[in-house]
Design brief:
single chain, four-stranded antiparallel β-sheet, globular
């Protein structure tokens, strides 16, 4: 239950930060000053998930953000402008990154996993059971659910740099069809699915 800090020049561990409870997702602010860590607080039935905040200068935990009413937290991302943190834990929590407070809670009505944000910050994509929930960050509403046929679980996902494609890792029913689905973000349709993978987890 730790976070390791790695020097990317030497690929060596500089230090290890402790004090977490089943850490799952992790992201860093665009200015590099804060790291946000999702604590799953597993197993199911445990108290709500929460976010730990690491100061990257001191490499210490300087605060926590409770996610009231959450469970099984996993996905977490910071908006491209650094103002907002999104955390998926059975719901989508929208958090003010300057005050570390929850602004709003967006119902998802599904188990949630990974998160990705469009480059312009207008869309948040959340991995859900059998597909992806698409959230409008201006209205804070789910505008559609992209359902992927014959998929038992969706974990990781990411948007390409120009925001035109969403890549979603999928695990097929019974292990068949494990791969990566490519979504056209203009109309939220599936263009293709690349197969030939073992169990896929993150992108």
């Amino acid at each position: 239950n730790t976070v390791s800090v790695i020097n990317t020049v030497t690929n060596s561990v500089i230090t290890t930060v402790s004090g977490f409870n089943t850490p799952k997702g992790i992201c860093i602010s665009p200015d590099g000053k804060k790291v946000f860590v999702m604590n799953c607080n597993c197993p199911s039935g445990s108290p709500a998930s929460y976010i730990s905040i690491i100061n990257t200068t001191s490499n210490t935990v300087t605060g926590t953000i409770p996610l009231v009413g959450s469970s099984q937290g996993e996905g977490i991302e910071v908006s491209p402008d650094g103002t907002t943190v999104y955390a998926a834990a059975s719901k989508l929590y929208k958090i003010d990154a300057s005050t570390n407070t929850v602004i709003t809670i967006i119902p998802i009505f599904s188990a949630t996993n990974g998160i990705s944000i469009s480059p312009n910050g207008n869309r948040v994509y959340v991995a859900i059971t059998g597909g992806v929930a698409v959230i409008n960050t201006i209205t804070n509403t789910v505008i559609t659910n992209i359902l992927i046929p014959l998929v038992s679980s969706v974990r990781g996902l990411c948007v390409n740099p120009d925001g035109t494609r969403l890549y979603v890792n999928v695990n097929g029913v019974g292990g068949a069809g494990n791969g990566v689905s490519v979504v056209n973000t203009a109309d939220n349709t599936i263009l293709s699915t690349l197969t030939g993978f073992s169990q896929v987890w993150s992108l």
